Amino acid sequence: MKLEIKSVTKIFDNTKVLDNVNLTLTSGKIYGFVGRNGSGKSVLMKIICNFYNLSEGKILLDGEDYISKRSFPKDTRALIEKPNFLPNLTGLENLELLASIQNKVDTEIIKSWLKKLNLDKEMNKVYSKYSLGTKQKLGIAQVLMEDPKLIILDEPFNGVDEETVNNIKLILKEEKNRDKIIIIASHIKEDIDSLCDVVFKVDSGSVKKI
Questions:
Q1: pTM over 0.70
Q2: What value does the mean pLDDT take over residues 187-192?
Q3: % of the chain exceeding 90 in pLDDT
Q4: Cα separation of 200 and 186, whole Å?
Q5: Torsions phi, psi for 94 (to 5 deg)
Q6: Are 71 and 49 in contact (CB under 8 A)?
Q7: What angle do CA 207, 79, 136 make, to 5 degrees?
Q8: Which pLDDT band, with edges at 50, 70 and 90, does 37 fall under?
Q9: Three-class SS string for the chain?
Q10: Of 147, 146, 165, which Cα lies nearest the Cα of 156?
Q11: CA 2, CA 58: separation in Å to the nearest integer?
Q12: Neighbours of 49 (CB within 10 A)
């Protein structure tokens, strides 16, 4: 898989949040994006998911200009900013509901992901009772459970316990070796250093390899 970001610019209210960004991301690597809050990391991730219209440029996934077709990138799952699920359903019920859209995975596979993320004791609790870290882990389970080829995680370890963080890092390295593109934004240098093959700094609209 190859993701090509070509001359991408995004302007909000006459402010260039992203300015002529050019990147090529390929399978089998974890890409890290670092930068202060408001630097444009989350905007770039949302643009890749086609949540925002481009001001200029194009994005190709395996040569397909999915942006101009007003579609979402194929085989992609993302957790951007913070997870949001139905508050009165349990964690398991929320994931089962999402899985029913495409019917790629069954309840047993969902449960196996919840166990990997140390959520098996929490899966029958309603989402409104979840802590910040537990919500975050459920969001990560939602991203991983359907075996996507492009994985996008924005500050994935926010509020997550150390044991689960270590589990997630091992899982992401395994997923990388299964020929996937993984994109991570984090303000924690240790997470970026321990996980990423390539790191970009986002600053004042520019994105540069470091």
A1: yes
A2: 83
A3: 82
A4: 11
A5: -60, -45
A6: no
A7: 125
A8: confident
A9: CEEEEEEEEEEECCEEEEEEEEEEEECCEEEEEECCCCCCHHHHHHHHCCCCCCCEEEEEECCECCCCCCCCCCCEEEECCCCCCCCCCEHHHHHHHHHCCCCCCCHHHHHHHHHHCCCCCCCCCEHHHCCHHHHHHHHHHHHHCCCCCEEEEECCCCCCCHHHHHHHHHHHHHHHCCCCEEEEECCCHHHHHHHCCEEEEEECCEEEEC
A10: 165
A11: 14
A12: 17
Structure tokens at 194: 């321990």
Measured CA distances, 83 to 80, 130, 132, 180 (Å)? 7, 11, 9, 22
Confidence of residue 81 (pLDDT cuts 50, 70, 90): confident
Terminal CA-CA length for the chain: 23
pLDDT digits (tens, 9 = 90+) for 52-76: 999 999 999 999 999 988 899 999 9
Length of the chain: 210
Neighbours of 64 (CB within 10 A): 13
Answer whether 83's CB lies under 8 Å from 136's CB: yes
C-alpha distance from residue 173 to each of 157, 181, 195, 204 (Å): 15, 11, 7, 30
Q: Which amino acid is at 197?
A: D
Alpha carbon of residue 185 to chain centroid: 8
Look-up of token digits 């589990």: 167
Q: How far apart are CA 201 and CA 161, in angstroms?
A: 26
177, two tokens: 């070796």
pLDDT at 205: 87
Match 């939602």 to its residue by tokens: 142
